[in-house]
Prior knowledge:
The structure holds two protein chains of two kinds.
Chain A: H1 5-14, E1 22-25, H2 28-38, E2 42-47, H3 53-56, E3 59-62, H4 65-76, E4 87-92, E5 96-107, E6 112-118, H5 125-131, E7 136-140, H6 149-157, H7 163-182, E8 185-196, E9 201-203, E10 207-210, H8 219-225, H9 240-251, E11 256-262, E12 267-272, H10 274-286, E13 293-298, H11 303-315, E14 321-326, H12 334-347, H13 352-355, E15 356-360, H14 366-375, H15 387-402, H16 412-417
Parallel strand pairs in A: 12-14, 14-15
Antiparallel strand pairs in A: 1-4, 2-3, 2-4, 5-6, 5-8, 6-7, 8-9, 8-10, 11-13
Helix pairs in contact in A: 2-4, 6-7, 9-11, 10-15, 11-12, 12-14
Chain B: E1 10-14, H1 19-30, E2 36-41, E3 49-50, E4 53-56, H2 59-66, E5 72-75, H3 79-91, E6 96-99, H4 106-118, E7 122-124, E8 130-133, E9 137-139, H5 146-152, E10 155-162, H6 165-177, E11 182-187, H7 198-206, E12 213-218, H8 224-235, E13 241-245, H9 272-281, E14 285-287, H10 293-301
Parallel strand pairs in B: 1-2, 1-5, 2-4, 5-6, 6-7, 10-11, 10-12, 12-13, 13-14
Antiparallel strand pairs in B: 3-4, 8-9, 8-11
Helix pairs in contact in B: 3-4, 8-9
Amino acid sequence: MRFYEYESRAIVARAGIPVTEHGFATTSQRAREIAQEIGGPLVIKSQVLTGGRMKAGGVQFADTPEEAQAKAEQVLALEIGGHRPRGVLVDSRAQVAHEYYAGVVWDGIAKRPVMLFSDMGGIDIEEVAESHPEHVVRAHFSTRTPFDDWQARQLIASLGISGGALTRLTPILARLARLFLDYDMTLAEINPLGELTDGRFVALDAHMEMENEARPRQRALLAELGVGEEETRQAREATEFELAGERVDTSDHRGVAGNVTEFDGNLGLVIGAGGGSLTLFDAVRAHGGQPANYCEIGGNPSVKKTCELAKLVLSKPGVERIAVMMSIVSNTRVDIVARGVIKACLELGFDPAQKIAIFRIPGAWEEEGFKILRRYGVEYADRSVSLHEAARRAVQKIQGAADGHSAPTHDAASAADQAPATTASAG
Amino acid sequence: MSILIDAQTTFIVQGITGREAVNLTRECLEYGQGARIVAGVTPGRRGREVHGVPVFDCVAQAVEHHGAPIDGSVVTVPPAFTKDAVLEALYNGIKLVVIVTERIPRRDVAEMVEVADQLGARIIGPNCLGIIVPDVIKMGGIGGPARDAAKSYTPGPIGVISRSGGMTTEMSSTLTAAGLGQSTAVSIGGDAIIGSTYAELMPLFEADEQTRGIVIYTEPGGRMEAELARYVTENASRLPIVAFMAGRFMDEMPGMSFGHAGTIVEGKADTAAEKIARLTEAGITVAEEISQIPALIAERIGASL
């Protein structure tokens, strides 16, 4: 999860890293008050989770409290990257002599955190690493032994930095490393880390991201910052559909019906597991299908959870049919998923044989599952039909319906159009 | 023969009294030649039995009961306690830990990996379904109940490595149906930091005479595919590799999170397209569909289907 700049500032300040005098305001009136308290030249910064604030006009200068109020009014109304700001940061404009970069991220190959440091701060570190690699140094560190100051000092010194700069930068980097581990961050970046004309070092901007899995054990920090438990801080706001999907998942602890994501097609997807979902989504698109959604069924969801998920997808405007497909399952029960999706159709007044374009879940309890599907006339496929082929059939079914094949009636001609009740062999 | 485990491997199940663990214990006991599960550990539950396996309060008691070092552990303990359980196993001499648990913060995973390295032990996972040597032994829930696992897996020359548990079985089943069995299949886990990557398992497969080719499942996110490409290029591996990559649609949706925790698209270098290019450059064949995999790997190992 991402933090707003004002929260990231609070986090680094808490860890003992100097920051400029600042305040957070949600109204222009409050911005003026803060400006009065701080005094001097100021920066008004939009508090959004997206980047590109500067370019979008979300960073403004002000020299008086009145100006601060006016600029704050402007910035508060400015949408950046589709987001309205939560507020503004009223920041003391520092006299900067030089800008550095300090950041910590995870290295998935070394399987350790890595600290990055550069004497070319204020710009994108990836650019610096590419065009001026000799200005970026890095060092991995242990998660088992406490981070010692000398590790930071050695890294900084390797760039040729000495004197007061070295001794003042050392504790800042050391504290950044410790807070990265203490608060389960996936990214902890101070850019720019400013050297002021009076020799002090301060974090002029801070960007922190915490691992979602760690939120349950970081409640104290999150509460202190005022981050609500329901706030997901994702790249974009969840849609109603997606929120409903989350509710289905959390309402029942049995199994997983996760990552429900909205798209706008006509083929609803009740798919899993994680890898299977990705593969199936690719396959549906490769065959020209238009998914209405993405999701990941996993673990051993109950009939109820499966039913609720299927109902949600079936009820989505524009959904004509659903395809129920998974990679071979080990601990998900095929019969339970079959019951769940059939129940969903019935509860919504649909004929499962019509609404379910295809059911392709081989694996545990498949014989029992196939029996249920046969009873309701649902077209199903076993493991001899690949994920790709199952997706193709689903897409073809829905496109066939779009081409004007009539809904099944009792006459002989259209009965032949119906998929056979038992499709157990390879296509 | 196989990598990591064989018919002689002894292991414990940590968190054995949990629902998932009870199931996988039975599955492992019933599969192949029958796993040698010598004990289970759930703190506070000493004296119980799970499918005939005695339960202890701690790993040290299990080792004492067994009367000899224990080779491995399957860990299903909830995420808040997994690190503690794994460290306990490692410090009690266990050299192979399969972590099934998901949602473990990566700081904890990094700690476990660091200790495993220090002690010369290996971690598979977390967030994985384990390891299987077809018709011999399985360690974890991979393949499900014994008779289902027997449908999907059969002995043969292909080593399978997958970041997705379900896809390990899907790909293996496809290979089995084509008459290409598996030497060992490993579900390595879907998280951003895992105990053993593709590149790290390659030397093990290379040392296994039975293995003649490798099939991998991969997704966008992370640099493990680049690591594998580099390994193959630098080490002139004798084993041809066929890869399947899912999640290509994510190239068009940056910043969104799908699939496993490790699958977050950020930046050009991590897109599916870039990864596929990198793999292909290293001589790794990339399959468009899973059904193509058997023919592709058969050709590369010089087998006929």
